[in-house]
Write a structure and sequence with these properties.
It contains 15 helices and 5 strands. The protein is mostly helical. The chain has one domain: Neutral Protease, domain 2 (Orthogonal Bundle). A 5-stranded mixed sheet has the order 1-2-3-5-4. Helix 9 packs across helix 10 and helix 9 packs across helix 12. The protein is globular. The relative contact order is 0.14. Bound molecules: zinc ion (ZN).
């Protein structure tokens, strides 16, 4: 397990750096010429979709749902995001991005949502690692009722990450300045959960099953660590699980009004495409205080990040994940 975690963290450290829309060099990159040059097949549409050979049906499925997510938010909040979808296997991923096969991300200008087409991607390993935190009877009934295998359920949750990536762009286009990683990542999943709650009940059930942190307690657990280290934290997937668990709890009460309230509290000025993090972003503790005023409970939730003991961390011989210097900041 330690070996897996080290490998996954190494791969993730590169990809998560790009998961946010903050990365300036990544914002400027245009991946379209490279995808055309490689001869990737394409499905036209409001969201053009490029895909690796053999993954057309999967690409069509993701494309139609992401287009529908745009349609939903255009109708309800007057916002949408122009993006391109790229559903790639390991080789094409590296050929296009120059990076190892990693977790889903949205980068570039024009913005491209990169999604893994195959299960040899580290995102799958992170989701599988949540199995132990799902009550066994809940999992058994879910798999029985849906007539699917655990691995197939993992794949469905990975597909959901595409909605999270669209959410990153919607946050900015809607006019919210997330200030930093903590709120940016939280909100991206909030958009995703809002959409599936209203339009994709089957995917909502998958999110409700997996949207929780793994039981493996990582070294870094504080909101401040995430803000400071971002992809350099021991296990970014753990933080995402914490966000998802809270979103499942608050969305039924707060709904889309939460997003409108946040826009008033954290207004974004200027062109969303050229967004750069404020020079003096609000400290994450202040962000949480402000969130608590909009939706009481955030401070109590944030306190749970630090409340459990850290795991014993024996130093593995040579297997520790390298702390990438590719921080977006
Ligand atoms: Zn993200």
């Amino acid at each position: 397990m330690r070996r897996f975690r080290a490998q996954a963290a190494t791969a993730l450290s590169v990809a998560i750096a790009l998961c946010s829309v903050f990365t300036l060099s990544a914002q400027e990159a245009n991946f379209l010429p490279r995808m055309k040059e490689l001869g990737l097949q394409k499905i036209d549409g409001k969201i053009p979709a490029y895909y690796s050979a053999g993954h057309k049906e999967h690409a069509e499925r993701l494309q139609s749902r992401i287009e529908d997510m745009n349609t939903y938010f255009q109708a309800h909040l007057d916002v949408q995001a122009n993006v391109i979808l790229a559903l790639l296997d390991s080789k094409d991923w590296t050929d296009v991005t120059g990076e190892p096969y990693g977790i889903a991300m949205v980068i570039g200008n024009p913005r491209v949502i990169f999604m893994p087409a195959t299960s040899d991607n580290p995102t799958f390993a992170l989701v599988r690692a949540r199995k132990e935190s799902i009550p066994p009877e809940t999992l058994r009934l879910f798999l029985r009722d849906n007539q699917i295998s655990f691995e197939s359920a993992v794949g469905q949750f990975v597909d959901l990450v595409g909605f999270h990536e669209l959410g990153h762009v919607l946050t900015l286009n809607f006019g919210i300045d997330p200030q930093g990683h903590f709120l940016s990542e939280f909100l991206a999943s909030y958009w995703s959960y809002a959409y599936i709650s209203e339009r994709q009940p089957e995917w909502k059930r998958v999110f409700d099953l997996f949207g929780r942190p793994s039981k493996i307690r990582p070294q870094h657990t504080s909101p401040e660590d995430f803000e400071k280290l971002y992809m350099g934290v021991d296990d970014p997937g753990w933080y995402h699980g914490m966000f998802e668990a809270h979103i499942r709890e608050i969305y039924p009460n707060l709904g889309l009004g939460f997003l409108s309230d946040l826009r008033k509290e954290f207004p974004l000025s200027g062109d969303p495409q050229a967004y750069a993090q404020p020079e003096r972003p609000l400290p994450v503790g202040d962000i949480i205080k402000r969130l608590d005023k909009i939706a009481p409970g955030f401070e109590v939730w944030a306190a749970t990040f630090n409340s459990a003991p850290s795991p014993a961390l024996p130093q593995p011989s040579g297997a520790a994940p390298a702390r990438s210097s590719k921080s977006p900041h």
